[in-house]
Fold Lactate utilization protein.
Amino acid sequence: MSESSRDAVLARIRQGLAAGPALLPPRPDFTVPVHPPLANADLVVAFAESFQRVGGEFYYCESLPHLAAQLAGFQKRQQVGVPFVWEPEMQALLYKAGVAFRADETEFIEKADLGLTSCEALVARTGSVLVSAATASGRRLSIYPDQHLVLARPSQVVAEIGDALRLMQARYGAQMPSMVSLTSGPSRTADIEKTLVLGAHGPRRIALFLLEEEE
């Protein structure tokens, strides 16, 4: 470095030191919510929008006959058979609605096109479905079938993931289920050459049927 270059560098250093230390960034306000308010104040509508945005199929069902019609339409469009349903309460509901289902595990490995389960909660912010191994569906019915169907109620919709986890803590306490999973749209990966593939590690389609509360 020449003498003139050295003098110029030292001059800039002296000028910087004379200006004093750099200002500290403003202290974060930890009381401010991390996320902005939901786009829609109606949690059910907000969830439906988020769920469809991540690739889910949303069906609103105002009654049991409407649920039966929506399920029949889905099966016809996708050209699939009847779903496997292992939860007794859901079996009773579908029987009342006149919906056919597979209640046992006969030929499950060979013919698991559809699995129909309940869920723990629905998250409006992310469009996620919170499932657990606490029900008779266990771990397999929401993961193994090619298409995962979920039957839920409007009262299960919460705003944030934290709300869903607090609900789980209140429901199960120290006896948390052995598996809790947040499902946000169909299973997908782009690990190989950045090519998006659906169904690589789970169902390639997820559809949610939101049944209105019983009066």
Notes: The helical segments are 3-18, 43-53, 64-78, 88-97, 108-111, 161-172.
